[in-house]
Amino acid sequence: MNDVAPPPLESLDEDWQTALAVVAHPDDMEYGAAAAVARWTSQGKRVVYAMVTSGEAGIDAMDPDECRTVREAEQITSAALVGVDTVEFLGHPDGVLEYGLPLRRDIARAVRRHRPEIVITTNFRDTYFGTFPNQADHIATGRAALDAVRDAGNRWVFRELTAEGHQPWDGVRQLWAAGSPLARHAVDTTEHFDLGVASLKAHQAYLAGLGGDMADARGFLERIGRSTGERLGVRYASSFEVVPLRG
Q1: Which domains occur in the chain, in start order?
Q2: pLDDT tens by residue, 201-221
Q3: Cβ atoms < 10 Å from Cβ of 180
């Protein structure tokens, strides 16, 4: 039986000006979405990063207290390479994230504070590519981000946020999940691909501890970027599952 080719991808709607990226760990945006961010910031759009954890459990040979400082610094450097000047760390524990009210509240606070039109996260489905198991923190963060976007627009949910001065915000039009197996949209990253590679390479300590194929920043991103680009009809692309939130 011949393999069935994946369907073509549609171009993302880029008629927006502000986005908030909410992901579990430093490096999550860099594994495929950073080149897209570089494209958008080059267009004059504003993108803010919110890291739910500091990735402190991500390097086996480094104590978490030391690792936290290293990985936060690497993420700030990485983000600057693609035009992101605001990186926040929400302080949840790496590796043991739980979907629930505290996580939803903290993400809703960030949404209310930054008032984005688009919220970006990473794949929160059970697998990558339909077969490889996803990581628990990614699933919890993506699910919480989706719900927190709606929480942010409801003044009667997390009333303490209003008391803190964070007024409700229901202006998020869509949530985009990078690298989802359900992705049907993509953006051409050909002109900004090298910036995406540089952004991943900035996670030097993490990549050194990681090893394997995923530590080869250019090689890994080229494989994913080319296969996605073929479905969009360009050289390199980043894919996203689009979840509409407004009519």
Answers
A1: 18-244 (3.40.50.10320)
A2: 999 999 999 989 999 999 999
A3: 23
